[in-house]
Amino acid sequence: MSHVKAGGTAKNIHDSPGQRLGVKLFGGQKVKVGQVIVRQVGMSKRPGPGTKLSRNFTIHASRDGIVTFTNRKVRTFSGKSVRRTEVSVK
Fold it and tell me: Hey, what domains does the chain have and what are their CATH numbers?
């Protein structure tokens, strides 16, 4: 027979690493073609001129220049107008 009582089950032991999301290059910084500007889940920030959106919603630079962030009004599916940040390279 066992000399130690049953320990029970561990429930909260699985932990995954962070996804490293967020803004990688800020406004006024220089950027080269293909560099990641923003990593995000969903389209909280919109791509503007000089940028492209990849399949996982990452915004990349499509030309060399300087990163700028501007606020833009965007219509949602329901017709409501909301403010979103637009990322562009000038």
Answer: 22-89 (2.40.50.100)
